[in-house]
Design a protein that fits this description.
It is a single chain. The chain is elongated. The N terminus is likely disordered. By secondary structure, it is α+β, with helices and mostly antiparallel strands. It has 18 helices and 18 strands. Helix content is about 35%, strand content about 25%. It binds one RNA strand through α3, β1, β2, β3 and α8.
Length: about 500
RNA sequence: GGGCCAUUAGCUCAGCUGGAAGAGCACCUGACUUUUAAUCAGGGUGUCGGUGGUUCGAGUCCACCAUGGCUCACCA
């Protein structure tokens, strides 16, 4: 028992016995660095420093050189390269703003400090005090008068020419990726700016940011398989949310009229370049609005964020020019399908006829026996139309069968006031006039529950409390969901969702 | 989950029809007081992803497994 306890303590404190305590496992590069570490300690140099006060970032020295020349500065950062030339040396130091060269001369720093400098490795974090000058070859440089070791690095960094290319290592050890591949940091800085711009746009327009449960008793608001977790004290299973939708609409019932949430959703499904099990979603709800208001909002939101963050609404994604300036094409699903497949579903009366029409048109499609007219229309749309929607396109009026939370069209009850936004063949946003008729909603849930009983794990569960809320009366409202990771992919020209998520889910090795 | 591809030094990669594991960077030793992919002289640091098999002999051929990439399926 006590042995078990000891093991747990070590696990919690992060000590990795198998890796760090077996010297014979260390390769020569790491062994040498550990020896240097001990040597430094032996000469009274603490290899892991404390607070360090710097005066300048690399960028500011480079940008303001004329004023900075000959001025004293204190910088701090990681040594990225080193060039020793006997009694003088150069190195590059990298901080959050970029890199700047330092020059260390025996005569300036003295023999002890110069010895210390020679022991430093690429990857070590140092603080440098010195004066700014320009070398003979014209590079702005800090001539060191004094320097401190702030953190000794025990592992060699990837090489300077190619950086870290191995995709698997880049994702597994993002910290290394960030150190050596400068473009990566830029993507995540842009990500942060995009999210800030979204928030500020919504805040300016009177929307209130709220937080709703990530752990839910009923995983609702979307069609997806949830993750299951367990609460010990209550001894009950909980789901990680697949969407915040039903909670945000409860807030409309409560009297909040314009709300939004930017947060993680979790879906227990396949992983791909477009899917990570946890992803960030923006959902917006506006009382007394409808789906065409949501289209206007989507256009304004995305185009103004692009303008604010990138300085242009005309972007290039994977070699394709995409114009995000309003107004975007709006086309009904029936028209879109007719345009791209020749099939006119408005003349098709039921599922049997739809099946025949698809077959006649020679479209290869796996159609389940239980599929309805709407299911088949939607499948044809996904298969033949989606990939062709490169420029921003709102596809409107989805079949009711695939839209269990959207309001029916008054004149065509088989369709709903729903749209999805497609850019580069990908779904980027999904929105509708919210269904606020509790009786209709209950009926739709019941249909979903039937599907669930028939084995469809992605179908909705019955949410009695949500119905209860609707029964109190929810104002008519427009609701909008935008996949933030995909938006960021688009705006940073990233081909994989893993390039816009700092720590994407990876299967452990071994 | 299916198909295709990849896995060799810390990193980036070569290694042909099976015949004694290689390069560049990094690292180590030495020289060098404005270099910058610093240079010059010397040094190879490895469970060839793992386990079996075929063979006199396997980094190389075969099977299975692991991880990853692309792609299809599912989804956002």
């Amino acid at each position: 028992m006590s042995g078990q306890k000891k093991y747990d303590d070590r696990a919690v404190s992060g000590i990795n016995i198998s890796n760090s305590e077996r010297e014979e496992d260390l390769n020569e590069l790491m062994r040498v660095r550990r020896e240097k570490l001990e040597e430094l300690r032996g000469t009274g140099v603490e290899p892991y420093g404390n607070r360090f006060e710097r005066t300048h970032l690399a960028r500011s020295i480079l940008d303001d050189f004329p004023e900075m020349e000959n001025q004293p500065v204190v910088i701090a950062g990681r040594i990225m390269s080193k060039r020793e030339m006997g009694k003088a040396s150069f190195a590059h130091v990298q901080d959050s703003s970029g890199q700047i060269q330092i020059y260390v001369r025996l005569n300036d720093v003295g023999p002890e400090a110069y010895d210390l400098f020679r022991k430093l490795d690429i990857g070590d974090i140092v603080g440098v005090k010195g004066k700014v000058f320009k070398t003979r070859k014209g590079e702005i440089t800090v001539s060191a008068e004094h320097f401190n070791l702030l953190a000794k690095s025990l592992r060699p960094l990837p090489e300077k020419w190619h950086g870290l290319r191995d995709v698997e290592l880049r994702y597994r050890q993002r910290y290394v990726d960030l150190v050596v591949n400068p473009g990566v940091k830029e993507v995540f800085e842009t990500r942060s700016k995009i999210i800030r711009a979204l928030r500020s746009f919504l805040d300016r327009n009177g929307f209130l940011e709220v937080e709703t449960p990530m752990m839910q008793v009923i995983a609702g608001g979307a069609v997806a398989r949830p993750f299951v977790t367990h609460h010990n004290a209550l001894d009950m299973n909980l789901y990680l949310r697949i969407a915040p939708e039903l909670f945000l609409k409860r807030l409309l019932v409560g009297g909040f009229e314009k709300v939004y949430e930017i947060n993680r959703n979790f879906r227990n499904e396949g992983i791909s370049t477009k899917h990570n099990p946890e992803f960030t979603m923006l959902e917006i709800y506006q009382a007394y609005a409808d789906y065409s208001d949501m289209m206007d909002l989507t256009e304004k939101l995305i185009s103004s964020v692009a303008l604010e963050v990138l300085g242009t609404a005309s972007i290039v994604y994977q070699g394709e020019e995409i114009d995000l300036s309003p107004k975007w094409t709006r086309i009904s699903m029936l028209e879109a399908v007719k345009l791209h497949s020749g099939l006119d579903f408005s003349a098709v009366k039921d599922a049997a006829e739809a099946r025949r029409a698809v077959k006649q048109a020679g479209i290869e499609l796996e159609v389940a026996v239980s599929d309805s007219w709407g299911d088949i229309l939607y499948r044809v749309f996904e298969e033949l139309v989606e990939p062709k929607l490169i420029q921003p396109t709102f596809v409107v009026d989805f079949p009711v069968e695939v839209s269990p939370l959207a309001k029916r069209k008054a004149e065509e009850p088989g369709l709903t006031y729903r749209f999805e936004l497609f850019i580069y063949g990908r779904e980027l946003a999904n929105a509708f006039s919210e269904l606020n008729d509790p009786i209709d909603q209950k009926g739709r849930f019941a249909k979903q529950v039937e599907k669930r009983r028939a084995g469809d794990e992605e179908a909705h569960m019955m949410d009695e409390d949500y119905i209860n809320a609707l029964e109190y009366g929810m104002p008519p409202a427009g609701g909008l969901g935008i996949g933030i990771d995909r938006l960021i992919m688009l705006l940073t020209n990233s081909s994989s969702i893993r390039d816009v998520i700092l720590f994407p889910l990876m299967k452990p090795r071994d």
